[in-house]
Amino acid sequence: MRDKTPTNSAGPGDGLIRAGVVIFFLGAVATLVTVAPLFLGSHPFPTYMFGLSMLMAVGFLVAGAGVLRSVAAGRRQARGAGR
Fold first, then answer.
1. Following DSSP, what letter does each residue of 44-80 receive, concatenated?
2. CB-count burial class (<10 Å; 0-12, 13-18, 19+) for 10
3. What is the largest CA-CA distance in the chain?
4. Residues 6+ apart with CB under 8 A from 19
């Protein structure tokens, strides 16, 4: 029996992966903005900008959680199909 889920539908974890990618890129931009004054010779940004740079790690963790959720759903689906 064929799976009735369309190939373009969002599976479990896809939303977390997309959100993680967006958060990661926001953190990457914040990191570039924070490091730029070091190369330009201007005054450094306030300390909270260094905290925003940590969004890269948060985005990575969120995307990783989405991947794990997607893998778990795939394993559950494979176990169900084997019965």
1. PPPHHHHHHHTHHHHHHHHHHHHHHHHHHHHHHHHHH
2. exposed
3. 66
4. 59, 62, 63, 66
pTM for this predicted structure: 0.77
Contacts of 53 (CB under 8 A, 6+ apart): 27, 30, 31, 34
Q: What is the dihedral of CA 69, 74, 75, 79, to 10 degrees?
A: 140
pLDDT tens across 18-74, in order? Answer: 999 999 999 999 999 888 888 888 888 888 888 888 999 999 999 999 999 999 988
User: Which amino acid belongs to residue 56?
Assistant: M
Provide the pLDDT for residue 3: 61
What the block records as the tokens of 62 is 């969120």
- Alpha carbon distance 19, 61 (integer Å): 11
Dihedral, CA atoms, 20, 21, 24, 30, nearest 10 degrees? -130
